[in-house]
Automatic annotation (TrEMBL):
GO terms of biological process kind: carbohydrate metabolic process; endoplasmic reticulum mannose trimming
Gene3D superfamilies for this protein: 1.50.10.10
Keywords: Calcium, Endoplasmic reticulum, Glycoprotein, Glycosidase, Hydrolase, Metal-binding, Signal
Protein name, as recorded: alpha-1,2-Mannosidase
Alphabetized GO MF terms: calcium ion binding; mannosyl-oligosaccharide 1,2-alpha-mannosidase activity
UniProt record similarity statement: Belongs to the glycosyl hydrolase 47 family.
Predominant place of localization: endoplasmic reticulum
GO cellular component, one term: endoplasmic reticulum quality control compartment
Secretion signal, residue range per the UniProt entry: 1-30
SUPFAM superfamilies: Seven-hairpin glycosidases
Region annotated Disordered, chain positions: 501-521, 566-599
Length: 599
């Protein structure tokens, strides 16, 4: 229980952000954006959703995805009405009871996974499994206002069946799953043993929720083992690479970054902690985030470096990085989030969209990465930053995004990929995540501005958004949120220490503000002669956590190193050092008798 005490800063911020998000609404929302115009933008985004959703249902359903230019359809993942599944909780969020109920009923009666299809474990988990679970939790609960009277857990049963068909992918020496699995026959003998860090480390929310709902721990266990398998193979800089061999545990691509192939690994560490209350996720996130801010952050941009040496290998902004400011809001690190979002949005302003790659050395679109496939990440961060700061500039940003999509991406039956952001050339494809995330975050942004009336802001629970934008509620059945403690400084050894905390420069009444951050100073007293700092300034929610044990020391999970590296590490750890990052303090070098047993 003591280890949970440091969790309050992050948890409190998350709860306050959700609970008081609709308390203060600016009268003058943005330059040229009045409350009435914000309402019009919200309604315009709603129309965008239905233009694309109706186009899919009329021209592509039950195929996976829509061809919005030619008004056709295609099977892109498994051939099981992917876009409909991915859209379910957006229908519920918009309050469309009839379409939501009809879609749930059709899926319950017609969907099956006993098919000879080889599918991506990652994409199937975040899009299909997450979509089924989110819709189940809405359809089965009177408190959501969207309960379907005739619903009898059909989506939950489908989710469990699907997850069991994905389980063979986790049967590897490292615990890190294969990238693909056949839903009928398991893993093919010729399946590649190389997978991405995001592919192996972005499964915990969906599988964890399924375990809590079915009371079968196997789903949560295998995904936690996958996270441990990846983290155990981090470099001594606490960085992870992009691709790894799931059998040997050797990194096949050692580029470390926050974008392509790694992005949601970081995201699910923090979100799994917020949803499940398991402090092991927080420990890993603290160390991983500290390393990212120390080695990858080149204010306000992020670069890719070699995971062992930290040498810059790729000075590139890629569009998947755009989720990061939103994650920083959840972590309470607001200032760098604001600066980075400004930089990322400047790319959008320059081209009307964010290209898949923007070279920071040449300040031009990266060759071969000129497209914009309707990605939601910048909208997601815009929503979170507006929710945290209520700065009207984020409404301006949202308005620009809507204009770009409407003017350049709108097609006869939906919205098209942009194959070249400089010439706004359209491509006949629409990913399901456009309906699951892109328009969802834009709609939430403007609904929040005019006075929110939706499940997320006014519903019975606090929601965690999955990496696919699916709504996962912190219900008592799912979340251990009630076990979090109520003061700072938990992770220190408390034998002869007295922990004392106070905050200054904090809003006089935190229940009456929604500026998105808690600023103050946490003071923790240590025994005389301690090498720990006497006080740690904080700006957000992770700062101020008492340094204490590292993740490896608490859980016995150290990185896997060669014998030479292990000897060097052992020698270095004899001298305690304090390594300060942008927002966390990581202190290696506790004594062996302080190291808890691996559980």
């Amino acid at each position: 229980m003591a280890a949970l005490k440091a969790s309050l800063p992050i948890l409190s911020f998350f709860l306050l952000l959700s609970l008081y998000s609709n308390t203060f609404i600016h009268t003058a929302l943005a330059d040229g954006v009045t409350p009435e115009e914000a309402k019009q933008l919200r309604d315009e985004v709603r129309e965008m959703f239905y233009h694309a959703f109706n186009g899919y249902m009329e021209h592509a359903f039950p195929l996976d995805e829509l061809r919005p230019q030619s008004c056709g359809g295609e099977d892109s993942l498994g051939g099981y009405a992917l876009t409909l599944i991915d859209s379910l909780d957006t229908l519920a969020l918009l309050g469309d009871r009839d379409r939501f109920a009809a879609s749930v009923e059709w899926i319950g009666k017609n969907l099956q996974f006993d098919i000879n299809k080889t599918v991506s474990v990652f994409e199937t988990t975040i899009r299909v499994l997450g979509g089924l679970l989110s819709a189940h939790l809405i359809a089965s609960d009177y408190a959501t206002g969207m309960k379907i009277p005739t619903y009898n857990n059909e989506l939950l049963n489908l989710a469990e069946d699907l997850a069991r068909r994905l389980l063979p992918a986790f049967d590897t020496p490292s615990g890190i799953p294969f990238g693909s699995v056949n839903l009928m026959h398991g893993v093919d003998e010729h399946e590649s043993k190389i997978t991405s860090t995001a592919g192996g480390g972005t499964l915990t929310l969906e599988f964890g929720v399924l375990s809590r709902l079915t009371k079968d721990p196997i789903f949560e266990q295998v995904t936690m083992n996958a996270v441990r398998g990846l983290w155990a193979r981090r470099s001594r800089l606490n960085l992870v690479g992009a691709h790894i061999n799931v059998f040997t545990g050797e990194w096949t691509q050692k580029d470390a970054g926050i974008g392509t192939s790694i992005d949601s690994f970081y995201e699910y560490l923090l979100k799994a902690y917020l949803l499940f209350g398991d402090e092991e996720y927080l420990f890993i996130f603290q160390e991983a985030y500290a390393a990212a801010m120390h080695y990858l952050y080149n204010d306000p941009w992020y670069v890719e470096v070699n995971m062992d040496s930290a040498a810059v290998v790729w000075p590139l902004f890629n569009s998947l990085q755009a989720f990061w400011p939103g994650l920083q809001v959840l972590a309470g690190d607001i200032d760098p989030a604001i600066r980075t979002h400004t930089a990322f949005f400047s790319v959008w302003k320059r081209y009307g969209f964010t290209p898949e790659g923007f070279n920071l050395a040449t300040l031009s679109v990266q060759h071969g990465q000129r497209s914009y496939p309707l990605r939601p990440e910048l909208m997601e961060s815009t929503y979170w930053l507006y929710k945290a700061t209520r700065d009207p500039k984020y409404l301006d940003a949202g308005r620009d995004m809507v204009a770009s999509l409407q003017y350049s991406a709108r097609c006869p039956c939906g919205f098209c990929h942009i194959s070249d952001v400089e010439f706004h050339k359209q491509e006949d494809h629409m990913e399901s995540f456009f309906l699951a995330e892109t328009v969802k975050y834009l709609w939430l942004l403007f609904d929040l501005a005019v006075g929110p009336d939706n499940l997320v802001e006014n519903g019975p629970y606090k929601y965690i958004f999955s990496t696919e934008g699916h709504l996962l509620p912190a219900t008592p059945e799912i979340s251990l949120v009630q076990e979090h403690c109520s003061y700072f400084g938990a992770y220190c050894n408390t034998g002869n220490m007295r922990n004392e905390s106070h905050a200054s420069d904090v809003a006089s009444n935190p229940q009456e503000t929604n500026d998105g951050s808690l600023h103050g100073r946490v003071r923790t007293r240590f025994p005389s002669g301690s090498t720990f700092p006497d006080s740690t300034p904080i700006s957000g929610l992770i700062k101020g956590v008492c340094p204490g044990l590292t993740h490896g020391q608490k859980f016995g999970i150290s990185y896997v190193a060669s014998s030479h590296r292990a000897h060097e590490e052992s020698r270095n750890q004899r001298k305690p050092t304090v390594a300060e990052s942008h927002s966390l303090v990581v202190v290696p070098g506790q004594t062996s008798e302080d190291t808890p047993q691996k559980r």
